[in-house]
Write a structure and sequence with these properties.
By secondary structure, the chain is α+β, with helices and mostly antiparallel strands. The protein is about 40% helix and about 25% strand.
């Protein structure tokens, strides 16, 4: 039972959009097939090393795709939880009462794909800055985060003192 008059809501779960992978790895996605083609030419004197480089780049791209697909942002009433990792599962927690600021930005390529990056700045020692990349511009998550931050700061008695 919630005794401090706060309403409990269902956690919001977000994954980065798949197109964020394309934005992050665009250059390698263009280079890798070119290297594969180059390794197929009989006249190429370094054919085998070229093929090895192409295979390593391909494996790297597969790893990065799996990595971005496994990122999960969970927004609860009191925390922002970030789960990520392929070989090692990592779970970071940011308490909302520690959040200092937040913003949204969308670079040119992200704008083309309808994506944005939501940045959370906090007093958390292990995660002072968190970039939530690949969020759809249609997902208006900052007002929800702002509301959670204000509720948690008030509940914990945390007040910001500014010097202007």
């Amino acid at each position: 039972m919630n005794t401090n008059n706060r309403t409990s809501s269902k956690p919001i779960k977000l994954h980065p959009c798949r197109t964020q992978y394309i934005i992050n790895e665009m250059l390698l996605l263009l280079i890798c097939p070119a290297i594969f083609l180059l390794s197929g030419f009989d006249a190429n004197p370094i054919r085998k090393p070229t093929l090895i480089v192409a295979l390593l780049l391909f494996l790297y791209l597969v790893y990065k795709y799996i990595y971005i697909r496994k990122i999960l942002y969970i927004i609860t009433d009191e925390q922002l939880i970030v789960k990520h990792g392929v070989l090692v599962a990592i779970c970071d927690y940011i308490e909302f009462y520690r959040v200092i600021d937040y913003d949204e930005k969308s670079g040119f390529v992200q704008q083309l794909f309808g994506l944005k990056t939501v940045t959370i700045y906090s007093g958390d020692h292990s995660t002072p800055k968190l970039d939530m990349k690949g969020i759809s511009v249609n997902t208006d998550i900052v007002p929800y985060i702002r509301e959670r931050v204000e509720i948690n700061k008030k509940a914990k008695g945390v007040y910001e003192i500014t010097n202007r």
